[in-house]
Design brief:
Shape of chain B: flat
Organism (chain A): Tritonibacter litoralis
Radius of gyration of chain A: 26 Å
Keywords (chain B): Membrane, Transmembrane, Transmembrane helix
Number of helices of chain A: 17
Order of helices and strands of chain B: HHHHH
Number of domains of chain B: 1
Strand content of chain B: under 5%
Protein name (chain B): DUF3325 domain-containing protein
Distance between the termini of chain A: 53 Å
Number of domains of chain A: 1
Protein name (chain A): PepSY-associated TM helix
Organism (chain B): Tritonibacter litoralis
Radius of gyration of chain B: 18 Å
Largest sheet of chain A: 8 strands, antiparallel
Structural class of chain B: mainly alpha
Helix content of chain A: 55-70%
Number of strands of chain A: 8
Oligomer: heterodimer
Largest interface: A-B, 32 and 28 residues
Helix content of chain B: over 70%
Number of helices of chain B: 5
């Protein structure tokens, strides 16, 4: 079989290199933070283990929803959305569809944020889809990392566009990588040759890229889909077929038609529905919606984002709103089961890796690490091949600053979080920690003589800062290991152990490298 | 549990493949290793759970197995030849020093 010609391979190598190089720094940031955010729930528990975190749907909700329903205007009672809010609280939103001039159909109503355990009201607001949130110490740090991964801290849709484009670039790099690598199977077990030569870096990059290939494609594709689906895809559909009305377009795609029956009927017992949903899917839902409450044709729909019962796909379960009887597993997209809908249902669980508890997360963490190594080694290889060029030499310094600077900044965000716990504004504290450590990295980068020296300093700084994180956590009121064992808060032990292991590995590695460099110097002398 | 067994089987096969890979041996100037099973048989053993698991376990187990052998395969291949031997020697040295220190 004839492969691509030499000329074609040269072009592909160029495309592969440039697609990775142009946005490599941002790609690295997205891949690294994505790897860390696999453990977002564990980080949330670790960062504020004192507070008893309860799943909002772990408590009965029926009485609460009825109580709140009596407090809202009658017009808002028909449509209800009960949600596990991002800040860990229980969100109950009573609304109606309203035509807003220039904005199409919007959800207008009253939004309540409730304590997940006691269901006492934390915040309430009335308006057009009010996305209010309460400050939650437990979720601040993990949300910061997830925001950095999903939006690069860019607000609004622009952030999603940016990460979507990065996903496309990663896909291009992966596909061109397959085409230019002629000996994928033959090089499958060839590890990095010693000496820090071009061939060593090529081995390192090739090994990590080939082994992570299936998951690079999977994560790049699902990530691009998640970034673009609601920020770009749906608005385009809405503009082309629904006069720009995104809400109507969404409803048309996801809500099937039903036989109308406006006869009055009481709402089914939500707690019974929740128990049935838990039995069928194996997980608590992320969202429960009630459509046309108070009518005979009411529907209750529960959205379960991550697997459960050994399944990988998300579930959307539909119940009769008047009797509470289970009706069907509703397709996520479209009105009838289809390959497209089944594929969409796989996107979130496969991207987040949270479909099978700690086992799937551990595997996703390992895969993310290999992908990070692949991105970094690819860039190192690109720069090594161009080290004679002064422009690319300056890029080496920048790249060294980012590769070790970003972990330092993430660790700085954790420091900011813990130090601001006592002052209460953890949101600003986390961001301040991130920015201050970024400034420190910038100063160190400007003062460093060579990229190697900068990498060395930043690596050591990161190792020590991570080593001290468990100490800082304890000093700012965190639970001790003894308390964690007694109260079965294994997340504290896990993240502390990961911090210590990471620090020890980096420090030992640095010591070995320093010794090797010293020996080489002695030999030369 | 089934996924764990599958991962162990695949890891074992991968470790043997790493051990007897001819290009790896050539690159690191190693002597020819004893061949336990042919590469084809080892690959068959390594990938056999991909066919068996979907019939005996939920799909999530298959995905976990696939992810684990992908990341683990990289880990096995990443270790340079002789690293395990060096780690063992270092541990033996450590033990000897501790015994010496105890007197």
């Amino acid at each position: 079989m004839n492969g691509p010609s030499n000329q074609a391979i040269k072009r592909l190598i160029s495309l592969h290199g440039w697609s990775g190089t142009v946005l490599s720094i941002f790609l690295y940031a997205v891949v690294l933070t994505g790897t860390v955010s696999v453990l977002r729930d564990e980080i949330a528990r670790w960062s504020d283990a004192e507070r008893h975190i309860v799943h909002p749907f772990g408590q009965p909700i029926y009485a609460t929803v009825r109580r709140l329903s009596d407090q809202v205007p009658e017009a808002f009672r028909a449509q209800v959305r009960v949600e596990h809010a991002r800040d860990g609280s229980l969100r109950v939103f009573f609304y109606e569809k309203r035509k807003i001039p220039g904005r199409g159909t919007q959800d207008f109503g009253r939004d309540y944020l409730l304590d997940p355990e006691t269901h006492s009201i934390l915040a309430a607001r009335q308006g057009v889809a009010p996305h209010q949130r309460v400050e939650s110490r437990a979720h601040e740090l993990s949300h910061f990392i997830v925001d950095l991964h999903a939006r690069l801290l860019i607000p609004g849709r622009l952030g999603l566009y940016a990460t979507g484009v990065l996903g496309v670039f990663l896909l291009v790099a992966v596909i061109t990588g397959i085409l230019i690598h002629r000996h994928i199977l033959r090089d499958l077990f060839v590890t990095e040759r010693p000496g820090g030569r071009v061939v060593s870096l090529r081995d390192r990059h090739g090994l990590a890229s080939v082994w992570s290939l299936p998951f690079s494609i999977l994560l790049a594709f699902t990530g691009t889909f998640l970034s673009f689906a609601t920020s770009l895809g749906l608005p385009i559909v809405a503009m082309s077929a629904f006069g720009g009305d995104i809400d109507r377009a969404f409803a048309a795609v996801t809500t099937p038609a039903k036989v109308e029956n406006a006869a009055p009927a009481d709402l089914a017992d939500l707690d019974q529905v929740m128990a049935d949903a838990l039995r069928i899917s194996g997980t608590y839902p992320r969202l429960l919606t009630i459509e046309d409450a108070g009518r005979r044709d009411a529907r209750i729909v529960t959205l379960h984002r991550n697997g459960g019962n050994g399944a990988v796909r998300s579930h959307t379960l539909e119940f009769d709103g008047a009797t509470g009887a289970f009706l069907r597993d509703r397709p996520l997209v479209g009105h009838e089961p289809s390959v497209g809908s089944a594929t969409v249902a796989l996107m979130s669980p496969l991207h987040f890796g949270d479909f099978s508890g700690l086992a799937s997360r551990a595997v996703w963490l390992a895969l993310g690490t290999v992908m990070t190594i692949s991105v970094v080694s690819g860039m190192q290889l690109w720069l090594k091949r161009r080290e004679d060029d002064p422009v690319w030499r300056s890029c080496r310094m920048m790249f060294a600053a980012v590769v070790w600077g970003l972990p330092v900044m993430l660790s700085g965000a954790a420091y900011g979080f813990f130090l601001s716990i006592l002052g209460h504004d953890v949101h600003r504290g986390t961001l301040a920690g991130f920015l201050v450590s970024g400034f420190v990295v910038l100063v160190l980068s400007l003062r460093a003589a060579t990229p190697v020296e900068l990498s060395r300093v930043l690596r050591r700084m990161f190792a020590w800062s991570v080593l001290m994180l468990p100490v800082l956590r304890l000093q700012t009121g965190g639970v001790s290991w003894g308390e964690a064992i007694l109260n079965n808060i294994w997340q504290v032990l896990l993240i502390d152990a990961l911090c210590l292991a990471l620090a020890v590995i980096l420090l030992v590695q640095q010591r070995v490298q320093d010794r090797a460099a010293q020996n080489a110097l002695n030999l030369a002398e | 549990m089934l996924a764990l067994i599958a991962i162990f089987i695949s890891f074992g096969a991968l470790a043997a493949l790493v051990q007897q890979d001819p290009k790896r041996a050539r690159v690191f100037r190693q002597d020819a290793r004893r061949v336990w099973l042919s590469s084809r048989a080892l690959w068959l053993l390594c990938l056999s759970p991909s066919v068996i698991l979907p019939f005996v376990a939920p799909f999530a187990h298959w995905v976990i197995w696939f992810g684990a052998i992908t990341a683990g395969g990289w880990g096995l291949a990443y270790l340079r030849p002789g690293v395990l031997h060096r780690i063992r020697s270092a541990l033996v040295q450590c033990e000897a020093r501790m015994l010496q220190w105890r007197g």
